[in-house]
């Protein structure tokens, strides 16, 4: 791709292209009066005409007492404002919805599209020449990029940054791989209540996002790979001076983007999405990253080609040694040079002409980052942690629309496995029976959970990490093949097949699996098959009526009526771009 962006400075005094406070005027039928009134009100806060005549930079404030992953938002906003004012702009922060994983019922994913709508509409409604998106916790960055992609003004992403790690008996610990690992130990009665309570104090050692390569860290790396952050914007921990310097630079760059008219559609191209997918695979990133990238790409008119994604996965090694696939934490990745170190190794596989928020290409930014140095977090290309990408795309009669497995976080012994299905009809059924001594289950069975897809739960919760039945866990079983139409946290570990499409709640084949059926998983053949004849499946479908969930009113009704399946990013159908531009990746 050739870089075709030409700077087109906004003509703020032109009636056709108003800028600054003249943008997005309230409809009173008299634009002169609308601007007069707007200025009168904002002057009530003490602004001068000189200040109000500058490029306006909106700053999306997602600080919330319910969101400790964004606990540094006040300091970040202060630093962004400093950067904006140093560059001659006028910073204006404003709130939107903020979503935290542990404080969102029924699940944060249920609210992601609402946050994207809030972000898009507030960018459209209020006057701003560029916008800084402050996000970090899992669903916030995708929601913001989805909304901003649809609004299409100059946009720059600022990540809140990862939390620090804690320590337990001399061992580094951090949310949330270690949360799950210690909880499994507690369930298996390997540690007692006193120790699990002590752990609870150590897992989250500061404000900021989860410290492993979960969804938040994955989306931070993806945002930088897309060209949506300043160079080095993905990795500084939340409470560091590096993070605050990134915030200041972000504010300064936002003003430049406003002056140059560098809108988001110049950056979020098919080539940029392919770069992001390469990075997702090379970091051993969260499977949720695929769903979110699919949704963001859909806002720009691109479909993610899962087969092409699998093809690039076969030639993209996992290089970053972070939990849950490896052993380090985000703060170690930052000390190892962060994304610059990774992008340098991946350079032969990247679209180097893709434009970034700096107005320079990704290739130019990699060159500007300087030379490599000795470190042990990002492996050389020829000495990977895992020879292929972290995520494989599966197909078969159980998932005609595809399913995925994070092979880099799975037990190698279970990659080729055939077993007897033990079926749970929904999350409540699972909760009531998984720890029962009466449960008929063996270590080589395959656990199947239905009705946790986009409509089934609703909101496609991260319940795909089905716990090992207690009686097997206490006998020392650490992993089993598990299958569902849901997602799992990027911090989880196990041989877990996710995103089975179409989901069971809309009558996908998963709905008709019965306990005792045989299922075959072959990661080498990219296969997930229910070993039941087509005729038998058709008979079951005819006998078992599936009622697609609905709701009477409100956001829940909007959600049920319009949410798409995982292969469309679980976005609302009416929010996707109306013009189809092609597929990504294009290989
Ligand atoms: Fe916010 Fe993990 S809970 S990033």
TrEMBL record:
It comes from the Bacteria. Its EC number is 4.2.1.9. Pfam families: ILV_EDD_C, ILVD_EDD_N. Keywords: Iron, Iron-sulfur, Lyase, Metal-binding. Residues 376-569 form the Dihydroxy-acid/6-phosphogluconate dehydratase C-terminal domain. InterPro entries: Dihydro-acid_dehy_C, DiOHA_6PGluconate_deHydtase_CS, ILV_EDD_C, ILV_EDD_N, IlvD/EDD_N, Sugar_Degrad_Dehydratases. Transmembrane segments: none annotated. Coiled coil: none annotated. It is an enzyme of class 4 (lyase). GO terms for molecular function: dihydroxy-acid dehydratase activity; iron-sulfur cluster binding; metal ion binding. Residues 54-364 form the Dihydroxy-acid/6-phosphogluconate dehydratase N-terminal domain. Residues 1-23 are annotated as: Disordered. Belongs to the IlvD/Edd family. PANTHER family: HYPOTHETICAL DIHYDROXY-ACID DEHYDRATASE (EUROFUNG)-RELATED (PTHR43183:SF1), HYPOTHETICAL DIHYDROXYACID DEHYDRATASE (EUROFUNG)-RELATED (PTHR43183). This is Dihydroxy-acid dehydratase. It comes from Candidatus Burkholderia verschuerenii.
């Amino acid at each position: 791709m050739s870089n075709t962006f030409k700077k087109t400075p906004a003509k703020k005094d032109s009636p056709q292209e108003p800028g600054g406070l003249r943008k997005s005027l309230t409809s009173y039928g008299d634009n002169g009066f609308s601007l007069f009134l707007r200025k009168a009100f904002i002057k009530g806060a003490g602004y001068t005409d000189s200040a109000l005549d500058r490029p306006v930079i909106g700053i999306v404030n997602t600080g919330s007492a319910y969101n400790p992953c964004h606990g540094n938002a006040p300091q970040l906003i202060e630093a962004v404002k400093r950067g904006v004012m140093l560059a001659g702009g006028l910073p204006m922060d404003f709130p939107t919805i903020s979503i935290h994983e542990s404080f969102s019922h029924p699940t944060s994913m249920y609210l992601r599209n609402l946050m994207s709508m809030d972000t898009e509409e507030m960018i459209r409604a209020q006057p701003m020449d560029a916008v800084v998106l402050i996000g970090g916790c899992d669903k916030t960055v995708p929601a913001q990029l989805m909304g901003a992609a649809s609004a299409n003004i100059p946009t720059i992403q600022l990540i809140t940054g990862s939390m620090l790690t804690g320590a337990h008996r001399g061992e580094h610990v951090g949310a949330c791989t270690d949360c799950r690992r210690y909880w499994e130990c507690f369930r298996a009665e390997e540690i007692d209540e006193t120790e699990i309570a002590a752990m609870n104090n150590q897992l989250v050692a500061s404000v900021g996002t989860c410290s492993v390569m979960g969804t938040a860290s994955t989306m931070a790396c993806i945002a930088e790979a897309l060209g949506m952050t300043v160079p080095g914007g993905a990795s500084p921990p939340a409470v560091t001076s590096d993070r605050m310097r990134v915030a200041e630079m972000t504010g300064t760059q936002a003003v430049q983007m406003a002056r140059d008219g560098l809108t988001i559609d110049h950056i979020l191209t098919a080539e940029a999405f392919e770069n992001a997918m390469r990075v997702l695979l090379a970091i051993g990133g969260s499977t949720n990253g695929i769903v979110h990238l699919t949704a963001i790409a859909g806002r720009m008119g691109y479909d993610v080609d899962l087969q092409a994604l699998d093809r690039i996965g076969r030639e993209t090694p996992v290089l970053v040694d972070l939990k849950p696939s490896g052993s380090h934490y985000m703060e170690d990745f930052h000390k190892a040079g962060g994304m610059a170190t990774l992008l340098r190794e991946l350079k032969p596989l990247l679209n180097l002409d893709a434009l970034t928020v700096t107005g320079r290409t990704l290739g130019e930014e990699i060159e500007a980052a300087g030379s490599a140095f000795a470190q042990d977090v990002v492996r050389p290309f020829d000495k990977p942690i895992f020879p292929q990408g972290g995520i494989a795309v599966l197909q078969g009669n159980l998932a005609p629309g595809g399913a995925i497995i994070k092979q880099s976080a799975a037990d190698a012994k279970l990659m080729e496995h055939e077993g007897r299905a033990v079926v749970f009809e929904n999350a409540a059924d699972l909760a009531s029976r998984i720890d029962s001594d009466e449960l008929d289950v063996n270590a080589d069975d395959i656990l199947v959970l239905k009705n946790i897809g986009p409509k089934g739960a609703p909101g496609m919760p991260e319940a795909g990490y089905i716990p090992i039945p207690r009686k097997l866990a206490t006998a020392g079983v650490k992993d089993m093949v598990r299958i569902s139409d849901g997602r799992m946290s990027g911090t989880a570990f196990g041989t877990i097949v996710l995103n089975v499409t179409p989901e069971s709640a809309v009558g996908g084949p998963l709905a008709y699996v019965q306990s005792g059926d045989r299922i075959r998983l072959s990661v080498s053949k990219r296969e997930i098959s229910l070993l039941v004849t087509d005729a038998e499946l058709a008979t079951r479908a005819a006998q078992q009526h599936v009622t697609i969930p609905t709701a009477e009113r409100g956001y829940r009704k909007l959600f049920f009526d319009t949410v798409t399946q995982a292969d469309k990013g679980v976005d609302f159908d009416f929010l996707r771009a109306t013009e189809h531009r092609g597929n990504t990746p294009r290989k």
